[in-house]
Specification:
Elements (H helix, E strand, L loop, with lengths): L1 H20 L2 H8 L23 H21 L4 H21 L2 H22 L5 H21 L18
Length: about 170
């Protein structure tokens, strides 16, 4: 008597499980392939901003240069990628400062930018011996003092050009 009852309960449980999972809508939903949604194209309207050389722009690049220069002097030789990033950012900000200055003042700064390019090439060659580290550190400190005293925003007030320099 127990065997037929046990079989009946087992068959009823299996039937209930099959009917609950194998419903028409849920089974069809489970087995059909989902369509992939294509991302919508986003269009940006390009707007040209009329930015002229200004003292505020010069001060921004000057501040960035000071911070990158300090970081390089403090961490020179510690991390190769950090040294390269610092020299590239430092040189880039000096070149931006140079582009904002009048021709006479920019010519003065060009020699110092060239000196920092030499330092950048030594660092990129991974030739950081103790002697090179000391030499580069001295050059960086000398350039820092010179640029800070001659090209601070207070010293170049009248030397900001009115228009961007025309490319050749």
């Amino acid at each position: 008597m127990q065997r037929p009852m046990l079989k009946l309960v087992a068959v009823a449980a299996i039937a209930a499980l099959l009917f609950s999972t194998a419903g028409c809508a849920s089974l069809k939903k489970k087995l059909t392939r989902k369509k992939k949604k294509k991302p919508e194209k986003v269009y940006f309207q390009v707007k040209k901003y009329d930015v002229l050389p200004s003292m505020e722009l010069y001060e921004k690049h000057y501040t960035f240069w000071v911070n990158w220069h300090r970081k390089l002097v403090a961490e020179l030789g510690g991390n190769f990628k950090s040294d390269i990033r610092s020299t590239e950012e430092m040189r880039g900000n000096l070149e931006a400062m140079e582009s904002l200055l009048t021709d006479e003042k920019a010519a003065e700064l060009a020699g110092h930018v060239a000196e920092l390019k030499k330092i950048e090439s030594v660092i990129k060659k991974r030739n950081m011996t103790k002697a090179n580290d000391t030499r580069i550190r001295r050059i960086l400190e000398r350039e820092y003092r010179f640029i800070r005293s001659h090209f601070s925003p207070a010293n170049v007030k009248g030397a900001i050009r009115a228009e961007w320099k025309k490319s050749k």
